[in-house]
Amino acid sequence: MAARFSELVIDSRDPEALAAWWAEVLGYRVLGRDEDGAVEIGPEAGFGGAAPTLVFTPVGEYETAKSRLHVDLNATDRDQDAELQRLLDLGATRADVGQTGEESWHVLADPEGNPFCLLRRRLHPL
């Protein structure tokens, strides 16, 4: 028996805006909204499918400590350079976490400054 990674909860200053941004990046849709302001996005299949859902929860105070978790992305329908440009056009920014410049991936940040990486290898869409 094993566990499955089903969803990732992300603290956010503006859950609606950040959920919309990540939905655009990942090709997800809004699955639901809670009374507390949380927004869940996920693939068309919804919760429990092959890909995890993301839940953006509102926080009053935002931590400024280094994040111990980040997301890695892979392009599905274009090469890494084209996907990098798409992400930058959507509002991602380049981030410096101490990389040397020789890496095969790019370190970026979403509109709220959460770091993520764009890896080189292209994956098949789900």
Automatic annotation (TrEMBL):
Listed Gene3D superfamilies: 2,3-Dihydroxybiphenyl 1,2-Dioxygenase, domain 1
Pfam annotation, one family: Glyoxalase_6
Source taxon at top rank: Bacteria
VOC domain mapped to chain residues: 4-121
Protein name (database record): VOC domain-containing protein
